[in-house]
What we know:
By secondary structure, chain A is of the alpha/beta class. Chain A has 2 domains: 3-180, 3-Layer(aba) Sandwich (Peroxisomal Thiolase, Chain A, domain 1), CATH 3.40.47; 183-193 and 230-347, Peroxisomal Thiolase, Chain A, domain 1. Chain A contains 8 helices and 17 strands. Chain A has helices at 33-43, 57-72, 96-103, 121-133, 232-254, 271-281, 292-295, 302-315; strands spanning 3-6, 9-19, 22-24, 47-49, 79-85, 111-115, 140-147, 167-175, 182-188, 196-197, 215-216, 222-223, 229-230, 263-266, 319-328, 332-341, 349-351. In chain A, strands 6-5-7-8-2-17 form a 6-stranded mixed β-sheet, sandwiched between helices. A 5-stranded mixed β-sheet of chain A has the order 1-9-16-15-14, sandwiched between helices. A two-stranded antiparallel sheet of chain A has the order 3-4. In chain A, helix 3 (96-103) links the parallel strand 5 (79-85) and strand 6. In chain A, helix 5 runs parallel beside helix 6 (271-281). The longest helix of chain A has 23 residues, at 232-254. The termini of chain A are far apart. By secondary structure, chain B is mostly helical. Chain B has one domain (4-11, 31-79). Chain B is globular.
Amino acid sequence: xxxxxxxxxxxxxxxxxxxxxxxxxxxxPYLKDKEKQFVISNIGINERRVxxxxxxxxxxxxxxxxxxxxxxxxxxxxxxxxxxxxxxxDYLTPCTAGVLQHKLGLPHHCLAFDINLGCxxxxxxxxxxxxxxxxxxxxxxxxxxxxxxxxxxxxxxxxTAMLFxxxxxxxxxxxxxxxxxxxxxxxSDGGGYQxxxxxxxxxxxxxxxxxxxxxxxxxxxxxxELNLIMKGLDVFKxxxxxxxxxxxxxxxxxxxxxxxxDYFVFHQANKLINKTLGKQxxxxxxxxxxxxxxxxxxxxxSIPLTLxxxxxxxxxxxxxxxxxxxxxxxxxxxxxxxEVANLPNIPLLxxx
Amino acid sequence: MINLKDFVQQIEExxxxxxxxxxxxxxxxxxxxxxxxxxxxxxVIVKITDCYNxxxxxxxxxxxxxxxxxxxxxxxxxxx
Lengths: 352, 80
């Protein structure tokens, strides 16, 4: 069982960047007004951020990282770990973390690599970075997590086009002898790999002219092989079946009870899923902050983006116990429980 | 035991249109209504999860043509 207790690592801050360009679901051209209103009220997403063509996930993460380092007054020389998690890297190869190490001006003795994960990226990423850092006395680390989902989503695909939003985030972690433990439960079920996927452009289905052929799959689902396929009902069943037991397991292993948690920051999938999960777990809605209305489903970035946008002013004052839960593409899911104190309140960055 | 009449009414409420024209019976082929969509399917599944703690998926809905079929499946699962 992938249950981890990691010590000697402190969560020191988080920053997030979104494109300034805002798209309103009310303007979605491929649904009738009545149907559109029905969709908007049920998924709970009014606005989304869509990055211009030349702006990548890495650009959003880079801006967030620079702002975070400035706020913490960290010297770049001190950063020993850079991990970038995304499904929308700059290149097929090399990894984006290396490019960012250079662009951010981080030293050559900084280790850097990418991880390919989506909605579960944040708990997974924190565990990887904290695991390394706990063995690196005196070191500091950056975890960069984000996605430009707009480059994957078919603009005419009714099943995905109104959901996703672009964002990039940066999280700072530091070796600290007396830091409170971080707890993780990390899981995967590759049997569900087809529930959320892009079939074309990879090794299995190499890019060809066919990749760009637009196919009508009926019921308002029009896309090509490079677009994201989402089987919404499968994802919903997966989330409901897997997430509550995972969280309860971590309570049991860590000895932290639900009452001890100040905020539950969940991946922002859609209102129906998140509301149902909250109900199943009997979590008070005011303890489950949401950014769905303004930033939709920002994939891997949704948890840190929600931290910045919704809890920035709360987390800069006192000590809070937080639970993060990410679930989705893979299928992959993970929960983290950690304590944070006096984080800098860094307002959300909006990039032109 | 899950009452069939209540069940039909609950699903009707979830699927109801603004002009209130839907009237469901156990024989209603709920997936044939005009406003049926994958999102509405999700809403029905959420309702069933909330009320009966039974989590259905797309395949389950596919094999249930009428509300009576759907009710029978929910009863069966809730007893498992």
